[in-house]
Amino acid sequence: MKKNKVVVVGAGMVGMSYAYSMVNQGTCEELVLIDIDKNRTVGEALDLNHGLSYAPRKMKIYSGDYNDCSDANIICITAGATQVPGETRLDLLHKNTKIMKSIVGEIKKTSFDGIIIVASNPVDIMTYVVWKASGYDKSKIMGSGTTLDTARLRFSLGERLGVTPKSIHAYVMGEHGDSQFVAWSYALMGVQPIYQVASKKDSKVKFEDLELIEDEVRNIAYKIIDCKNSTYYGIGMALARITQAVLENESSILTVSSYLDNKYGHNDVFIAVPSVVNETGVREVIELPLEKEEKVKLDDSIEIMKENIAKLDI
Ligand code: 6V0
C-alpha cells in the first residue's frame, strides 16, 4: 500500500500549526519535521507524539533530515524569516529566496518525486523560486496562495449572512498580499449569486459592503500581527486542507498559487487562481472569464509578481 508521508521543512509557528492540524485530522501516516534548529524538531516531535493516544489514527512522527524526503509524497516548506522592524518587504524577499534555494539544494540531492507545497512569504514569489531552483515539473509545485484569504472571506461573509462559511462559494484571487482581489462575479451564497443577495432590500450584506469586506480580508493579517505578532492557525489548517486534497487524490478546487501556462493571458508566473488539486499536484488551472475590472486587478497583481521576480538572483 502507498505510504502517505509528509515532510515539513520549517518547524516554526506555521509549520507546527500545520503539523498539529494534520495530527488532529489524521491526514497522513508519517510526518517528518526538519528545521535548522534540530533541537526544536526533537521537542516538537515528542510533544506531538504525546497526543497520539487521542488522535484519530496511528501516525509515525519524528525529527528527521533531508534523507527522509526520498520517499515522501509531500514536502511542505514553511521555513523562513519573518519581517522584523526596519526591514523592507524586499529585504525579506532576498532573505527567503536564499533560504528557499538552500532547501531546494538539499531536496535535489534526494530521489524525491512528490509534490512541493510552499507557504513561506512572499508565497507566490517563493513558489516561483522553488520551481526555478528545483527544475521540477511546474504542476508538482504549488504555493498556499490565497487559500487562507479565501477562508477569511468565507468566514466574513458567512458571519454577516448568518450561514456557515462552508456554504459560501467565493474566491480571493491574485497575490497573497496587498494586490489580491475578490472575484465577486463568481461569489455565491449556496446557489445564489452574492450580487443577487446584496440587491435584496433586507439583505445583511449590501453592495456598498462588498468593498469593505474585501479590504477587511486583505488587511486582517495586520490586525492579528498587532495582537499576537504572527498568524499561524488559519494557514496551518489551509495547508492541511491542500495536503488532504493531494494525498486523497480529491481533485478539489482550491486557490493555490499555480503556474500560469498561457492561462489568463500570462506565462512564467505563479499566482493564486482556482485550481484543481489532486495527487498529480495542480491538475488544471481553471480559467474564469473574469469581469473587465477583475481581469485588470489580476493583471496588475501578476505584474507586481513579475517585477519582484526580475529583482531576484535565482
Ligand atoms: P517562525 O516561527 O519564525 O518559523 C520559521 C522556522 O523556519 C524557524 O523554526 C526557523 O528555524 C526555520 N528555518 C529558517 N531557515 C531555515 C532553513 N534554511 N532550513 C530549515 N528551517 C529553517 O515563522 P512562522 O512559522 O511564523 O512563518 C514561516 C513563514 O510562513 C514566513 O515566511 C511567514 O511569512 C509565512 N506565512 C505564510 C502564510 C501564508 O498564508 N502563506 C501565513 C502566515 C505566515
TrEMBL record:
Catalyzes the conversion of lactate to pyruvate. The gene is ldh1. Keywords: Allosteric enzyme, Cytoplasm, NAD, Oxidoreductase, Phosphoprotein. InterPro entries: L-lactate/malate_DH (IPR001557), L-lactate_DH (IPR011304), L-lactate_DH_AS (IPR018177), Lactate/malate_DH_C (IPR022383), Lactate/malate_DH_N (IPR001236), Lactate_DH/Glyco_Ohase_4_C (IPR015955), NAD(P)-bd_dom_sf (IPR036291). Belongs to the LDH/MDH superfamily. LDH family. The modification Phosphotyrosine is found at residue 222. Beta-D-fructose 1,6-bisphosphate binds at residues 154, 169. The keyword tRNA-binding does not apply. Its EC number is 1.1.1.27. It is found in: Cytoplasm. This is L-lactate dehydrogenase. It comes from Terrisporobacter glycolicus ATCC 14880 = DSM 1288. GO terms for molecular function: L-lactate dehydrogenase (NAD+) activity. Residues 5-143 form the Lactate/malate dehydrogenase N-terminal domain.
